[in-house]
Amino acid sequence: MAEQKLEKLFKQHYRQMYRLATVYLHDDAESKDVVHDIFARLLDGHSDLKEETIESYLLTSVRNRCLNVIRSRRIQERVEKRYLLDLETTIAPTNHLEEELKTLHRGIEQLQPPVCRDIIVQHFRDGITFKEIASRLEVSETTVYKHLRRALSQLRQTLNCER
Description:
Layout: H1 3-25, H2 28-43, H3 54-88, H4 94-109, H5 114-125, H6 130-137, H7 141-161
């Protein structure tokens, strides 16, 4: 695209594009960056535009670029939030973790009926799917889920009582 034509488009549409970007982003600097990026792309010759569609192309480009910026902000905020949560968690002393594991192991050994213990061990220790466990025990998957729920409930009670 010829530089003179681009300069004319810039003067003609900049304010409207900037206002639209500001509505989306609520940030002057980012809004200017969005508009400038669009014109820089046009300057690089990445688009052949027809006179009758130029305005809608420019405004659509602003909208799409703003939505990309907003999406990037959200991703960045989630990453920052996750990072802050990771910083806030403290690492438990190793001996405390060992004690919890021993308590959990004792709780698993005490599960009643024994089929609950077997399901917990097969699923969590051995990595066997519920479907495979149901097949091995010759029961339905629903029965496996019920026993698992009972086992987890018993483990929660055991762990809460020993704290």
